[in-house]
Amino acid sequence: GNFIPLSTTDPSENKSLYSASLVFTQSYSPTSKPLKAYLDEHIDFSRKNTALTVDVAASIVDKCKKIDDDRRLEKDRSSSMDSGIQTRSQQKPSTTLLDCFKHFTKREVLSDDDLWKCPKCAMLKKATKKIDLWLLPKILIVQLKRFNYTRYYRDKIDLRIDCPIDNLDLSQYVLNPAEKAKAKYNLIAVSNHMGGLGGGHYTAYAKNSHDKKWHIFDDSYVSEANETDVIARTLDSRLRNSSFPNIGTTCMKDAPLASAKEPYKCSDGEKSFYVPPDSTDYNKYARCSECYSKALQICPSDSFGRPPTRKTKSGVVLYDLDDFPLNEYLLKSHHDFADNRYGGITFGDQIEDDYDNRSHALIWFNNKGYHALPSYLNVMNNLILRSKISDPVIAGKFGISTYSHPFTLNSDLLSQQSLEQRISDFGVAITVLCAYSFVPAAVILYLVREYVTQEKRLIFISGVKPLIYWSSTFIWDLAYYLILISLTMALIKIFNISAFNSRVTTTQAIFCLLFLYGWSSIPLVYCLVRVFKDTSTAFMASFCLWMFTGMLTCIADLMLTLYSWVPGIVRAQSILSRCFLIFPPYCLGSGLVHLMRNELMADFGRTIDANLYVDPFSMKLVGDRIVAMIVVGFLGLIITYVLDLDIRLPNIFYKIPAPETTIDGDVMEERHRILNGTDTNLDILQAKSLTKVFRRATGQSLLAVDHLCFGDVYPTSGDCFLYEKQIRNQARAYPGSIGYCPQFDAVDGYLTSREALMCYAKLIGIVDREHIVSSTLKKFHMESFANRIIRTYSGGMRRKLSVAVAMLGQPDLILLDEPTNGMDPGNRRIVWNNIINAKKQDKAILLTSHSMAECDVLCSRLAIMVNGQFKCLGTPQHLKHRFGTGYYLKLRLEDESSIQIAANIVQQYLPDSNMTERHGTRLEYNIPKSYTLSKIFGFIETNKNLMNAIDYSLSQTTLEHVFLRFASKQRDNSIVNLEDVLMDDTASISSSTVQSFVQTTEKANNTFSRRSPSFTPMQNDNASQTAADLRELPAIDSCTDLVLNVDRPPSSASNTSSQQDDHVFRI
ABC transporter domain: which residues (predicted)? Predict the structure, then answer.
């Protein structure tokens, strides 16, 4: 039952002793034959195997002198031969003597050089050989091979072999059934060798057959082995034995913690000590650095080596320090094992003879561990108890359990945790917070795109109410967020994170924190949609806002908690923690920290049988955070809904200047008609006193009437009316009454054109959707592209689809903001035809365009705005006739030598004409209206040959010329005199913003256009080139006042005063 390691340690020399041979005697029955007689019978076998066997009589001297100094020097010289001395880190894992028997008696296959001759066929064949035992001796001597000597390799075998002291059972290797009962042996002698091939020394242990005492043999010196030394070696073998449940009672069958989970869960453990492959020897020359702040020395990891280890069934790791100087090892490795080394046991220490108690077992314990002393004392008691029982199986069923209650802990003591633990909890919370900061950033992406591309406005115009829009959006986002929460909870369950998964209530609290974080964060990010102008900025700003808000608030709370001992800090921390509850990231981060701290306190409480677990939903823990996030979520939804309501606050910041007294007659007549309500029953769209005042002109606030009508920008005063009702209420109350094509493509690019049209048809409420959608696709020649993804379309195709959406369902009012921008001539003609057909069906159309030719073709009435005031109003022909400067004559000459001749002739016969352009052999003249057409044609026909003219053309002033002449008179913060516009032909184009409107007041042929280009100073001959850079804004029907912004150059800033900061535009 008792196992002794054949590689033991000599305490005086601290060197390894390797067994050379062992002597056993049968234990099945007492023998009457003297031990010497048995030794004599086997003397030959003993000599051949160099085994040492002795007959120990009772008269042997009880105690011998210590080895003299000369003998010690001789042993030191022999032990210093490094060829045979190997450290424990170089040894292989140990094995047992029974394993040696098994290997010795196994079947072996003979090689080709050792073939067996068959007695029957007389042929050499391959065969196997095997050694079996038939008869067993009374005295069994087991010789162990000690050296390995080959041609190139010589060394001492260092394999450690564990041998049982009692009951060595060899019955499984005996073939004779009669001998099986005699197959149990007890150890009576051991021969040990110390040294190597270059030299060494033999010692032996032998047991006296009379008094059953062990003696030590060292050359001529014989001494009785101290009983306590034998007990210590027996306890050491018990401690090394892997067949026991544990060094304590944790893994015993009926132990209190036998069925416990982590960290008390039992496993198979390791059967022997394991030497790590990267193990190193003890380095006594290594230098250690002193750390004064921690009052310890820090040594390099290679200074104290890597001793062999074995993990027990309960998870305790044993370190074998036979080959290490114990005190130095403990000092040098203290820093590496400061948190998990609490004690140990050493055997065989030399005790002075003067002490009554000369036990060779010493218990070490770390007094920083509250339960280290009683725990390791109980380990020693269990070893002593089990050493008294020879059968290891029976010994494993006995044990002593110890309960330690050194002092009583309470929640106040446990709440004073270490700084490292708090920082660890904070790190976990920050990690989760950083991951979940992407949630609001991901939510805002699509909403900002809808807002910037005006898709959201198009949805509202189609009849969707803000409550339905935001409710459906919130439900959709929350559903996706629940998927993320489910994955998070699954990961917590899979990886079995104890701080979050130990109790059901804790798991429920974590789920509530994560869910309510989304409940509160998603509505808050809805409120920020109007702030951003592009999706990338919105994503990064939202992520950083949520992450840094959570980090800063949590760090502030943590720092105040760490300095709670400072007077006044506790109150400040309490106030700030309440204020921080309005931030969902703080609620999530601090809530996770509180939950982890609660689990830590509960774990401490279990060790002292105290229930320190607090209900996670209590207001003391995370209840206040749950309530705060619920309230913040409702407030965010309410604010989001209110922001989309048509609530206009009274204007108290801007004073509206009085309109100019110098107003064109057509404009004045139209204003009086609208304000007096004369013949307005046929008007579809009216803008009454529509005014917008800007504090400063930024050059980026060019506004369209549709912005003022639909709520993106609120007017300072006045409003727009559709059939004498406010257009904002009308659009939502009667979906389908207004069609809208925004400046940017507002259709979802991941749909097909058929799906997009079908979607808006459902929103409008069209009954026969399939027929209407197919008809619309056919009218816009899009049948072949109906089932393709919109994002694959060209820019012109997407604009054409936007126009088709605006005209879906034949609305009464159609707003088109640059509908043909980016189109090729073919698609532009298709859109023009559909606009003309809508005019024929008595539909009012408000058009914005870059092309004056497009306005001339499609529009019925125009209005040109200068410095925020209408300067003219009427049909295109009326404006060209009234504000045109006459006629434009274009000549194309044969060569450049004729240019000067032609110029002189024109100046002679038409002295009031003015050359406006000259390109190569092409000349363009502006001829006043004082000349009749007959006189002009007569002059040209008469002098055509003299001027060498190939061809010529005479035309009336175009809208482009009229517009450019008005634009040239735009001045910052000044009133343009109408007479100056009509009479001055030489003024250069100034930096300005001019609004051009095309509109009608009749129900038929209602098409409106507005144009607002920005110019920079240039010469007159480049004026036509400037027209290509103009930007248009839509006009309105039956307008009285419109206020729009003016682009002002930086150079004009010096001419402005504080009274000139308000810029007013009226219709």
Answer: 647-892
- Rounded Cα–Cα distance for residues 634 and 629 (Å): 9
**Residue 361, beta-bridge partner list:** 347
Same domain flag for 364 and 341: yes
The mean predicted confidence, pLDDT, of the chain is 73
The range of the structural domain enclosing residue 570 comes to 412-643
Task: Judge if 559 and 621 occupy the same domain.
Answer: yes
Q: Is residue 670 a contact partner of residue 677, using CB atoms and an 8 Å limit?
A: no
Q: Report the number of distinct structural domains present in the chain.
A: 5
- Please indicate, yes or no, if residue 326 is contained in any of the structural domains: yes
Regarding whether 484 and 380 lie in a shared domain, the answer is no
Within a domain: 873: yes
pLDDT of residue 204: 86
- Contact (CB, 8 A) for 1032 and 1014: no
What is the per-residue DSSP string for 75-124?
Answer: HHHHHT-TTT---GGGSPPPEEHHHHHHHHTS-EE--GGGPEEPTTT--E
CA distance 161 to 96: 5
Instruction: Return the SS3 of 823.
Output: coil
pLDDT of residue 660: 63
Pair (242, 168) in one structural domain? no
Contacts of residues 36-40 at CB distance under 8 Å and 24 or more positions apart, as own/partner, are 38/138, 38/139, 39/139
Of residues 296 and 726, more confidently modeled:
726
Tokens representing 715 are 């007017």
How does pLDDT run across 287-316, given as a tens digit for each residue?
676 654 555 677 776 666 778 888 887 788
CATH number for the domain including 916?
3.30.70.250
Residues 293, 335 contacting (CB under 8 angstroms): no
Q: Bigger pLDDT: 590 or 562?
A: 590
Last residue of a domain, one of 618, 643, 668: 643
User: Distance (Å, rounded) from C-alpha 326 to C-alpha 265?
Assistant: 31
Q: How many CB atoms lie within 10 A of CB 287?
A: 9
Of the pLDDT bands very low, low, confident and very high (cuts 50, 70, 90), residue 888 is confident
Confidence at residue 171, expressed as pLDDT on a 0 to 100 scale = 84
What's the pLDDT at 629?
A: 96
